What does this fold into?
Amino acid sequence: MTPRMRKLLEFTLDNLVWFMLVFVLAVFSALIPNYFQLGIFANIIEASSVLGVMSIGLALVIIAGHMDLSVESVAALSAMAVGILFCSAGIGLGIKLTPAWLAVPVSLALALAVGGLIGLFNGWLIVKVKMNAFIITLASYIWVRGIVLAVSGGRSAQDLAPAIRWFAIQRFIGLPLTAWIAILCFVLFSVIMAKTPFGRHLVMIGGNETATYRAGIRVTRYLILAFVLAGAIAGLSGWLLAIRTSGATANLGIGLLFNAFAAVVIGGVSLKGGVGALPGVYAGVLLLSAINTAINLMGLPAVYTQVIHGFLVLAAVLLDTFKTRLRQKLA
Amino acid sequence: MREPLLVLDNIRKNYGAIEALKGVSFSIGKGEVVALLGDNGAGKSTLVKIISGGLEPTSGRMIFEGQDYVARSPAEAKAAHIETVYQDLSLCTNVDVVANFFMGRELTRRVMGIPFLDERAMEAVVAKALANAGTRIPSLRTKVEHLSGGQRQAIELNRFVHWGGKLVLLDEPFAALGVEQTRRGLDMIRQVADQGIGVIIITHIMQQAFQVADRIVVIRQGVVAGDVERSKTSPDAVIEMITGQNLAGAGAAGGMGAVESPA
It folds into this structure.
């Protein structure tokens, strides 16, 4: 194989998800009436903001060679914390701050702190006590959701403070601010992962932890930080979720974890760690959202979405295996 | 006698009731290549970890360049310019040559206080270092997983030399290499040693030890069973030291200096 062909093939493999996204959008636009509209595309981006933000945190941890199953429950707990404090109906306490806009930074800080603390707990157990990431975060997935149920008593909080709701209503170039927050996060973390020593070290840790340890990189600190970031980012997605639904319910966000996994894997992040980049993950998120929108527009019963998502996860993992094999042949 | 670089004095290591090392003493000079031989379980890897960081000796001391030396972690050893090159353990194959060369020491440019990787400057440094060493790698932006075993080793050794390394430990450096690559690897070791760097090679392959080493140190059952100059011994004699059939070379625990080869 000539070097040029190899380069071309590698470029295709690296950006496969973007090609898939364009292909899927083209097919849907051609086949589904009313799909090809700016409003629909804006809707695809808007609907993917919560999932998108959550996927960033998950991707960081997976790229560093680990796993975090707790992101969905963490997001729910952050959303519930914000909901209980700043909602005025249901179980909401309706706390009023003066000036009213102060509720924005306070609620955001609360959501980030809740997520970051759970991330720290996960990270400490996994990295310092050296327990298995899968089991620890599975446990967190369960107990954090348990806390959501316990503090809410199974009831919900409604009517989020208008100052916070503002982010869902206010639009900039046709997109609500919540979507811009997601896009901003993707740009920010893409730059961090690709251009800074921190990102480079995370990728290298995911590739060969022993080598990075021998090279004097503080692996423990980096990995714990990755878990804290994943938690805090999940907290941010919970904050967005509370804004989107103007409150919080006990079963908020159930099923998001598997969508996030699907997005991350479809986006080209290998579950073995060390491979993948965040722009691809965003394309994966958009791809899922595009498919959801298509299902809605075609009027398929919503009960089928779960089946389709399940098969998407399966397809994503198959794709991952296939790509790994192809790369080995290239090597 | 060369100027000693690292001196090990009566190093012991116990794991609970098990004595892995029962008092190991030897020294290595600047620019000297020492082959460390021994059967499985003789205590070689324990010794390597004590020198290159990660294990602390139970007792005994090490003197590196005339000063007391203990490495609690690989990072500490590295700060003292001592490093181990493990087969395939020291490179991240998922990133390119430049990233590996600068692993943990990235050059950065600060933009508004935030450090950004200075890729262009790093690539220039790597290109120069590899060119000086006569190593040719098609593209420095190739991921290391696409490179051959010989090229990987060249990257590791060049990286070590470039960062001012003084003592390098090579653990089974040629286990996965072909004949031609091994020959080039041995040449490279000679070249590295000629710059005044101490080289300790851990190997099972007698032929390689005799090709490149100045001195051969045999570890058996946690003690130095032989410490001989290459020119004064033979592969058969060394094998006898390793297996313990002939105890003529087995110095007492704590014995130092060259021992005559068994007749």
Summary: The longest helix of chain A spans residues 303-330. The interface with chain B takes residues 3, 195-197, 200-201, 203-204, 206-208, 210-217, 274-275, 330-331 of chain A (CB under 8 Å). The mean pLDDT of chain A is 90. The first strand of chain A starts at residue 87 and ends at 90.
